[in-house]
Amino acid sequence: MSKKTKADDPQASIFEALSFETAMAELEGLVGQIESGQLPLEQSLAAYKRGSELLQHCQKSLADVEQQVRILTESNQLQPYIDAK
């Protein structure tokens, strides 16, 4: 079985182009829709799935920025964080 890479996953490239702020705004909107209880079951499930993907994207973005800050504080210069994955 072969490993999937970012290039193999079209969703990964969609999320890479999405800013943290845009993803958070969409996530907050989805949460509001789900909490309202007005969505049909299928739409609720789709919103939940999209929200889960957005949450993962936001968590990764925050982790990357946190790593950059750690690098900055160690060397007193901001260096880009290169994900080794």
UniProtKB/TrEMBL annotation:
Presence of keyword Metal-binding? no
Concerning InterPro entries, the annotation shows: Exonuc_VII_S, Exonuc_VII_ssu_sf
| Keywords for this protein | Cytoplasm, Exonuclease, Hydrolase, Nuclease
Q: Which GO terms describe its cellular component?
A: cytosol; exodeoxyribonuclease VII complex
What does the entry give for GO biological process? DNA catabolic process
Top-level EC class: hydrolase
Source taxon at top rank: Bacteria
Name where it's found. Cytoplasm
Q: GO: which molecular function terms?
A: exodeoxyribonuclease VII activity
Describe its partners and assembly state: Heterooligomer composed of large and small subunits.
The record ties this protein, via PANTHER family, to: EXODEOXYRIBONUCLEASE 7 SMALL SUBUNIT (PTHR34137)
- Say what the protein does: Bidirectionally degrades single-stranded DNA into large acid-insoluble oligonucleotides, which are then degraded further into small acid-soluble oligonucleotides.
Q: What is the protein name stated in its UniProt record? A: Exodeoxyribonuclease 7 small subunit
Q: Which organism is it from?
A: Methylobacillus flagellatus (strain ATCC 51484 / DSM 6875 / VKM B-1610 / KT)
Q: What is the lineage of its organism?
A: Bacteria, Pseudomonadati, Pseudomonadota, Betaproteobacteria, Nitrosomonadales
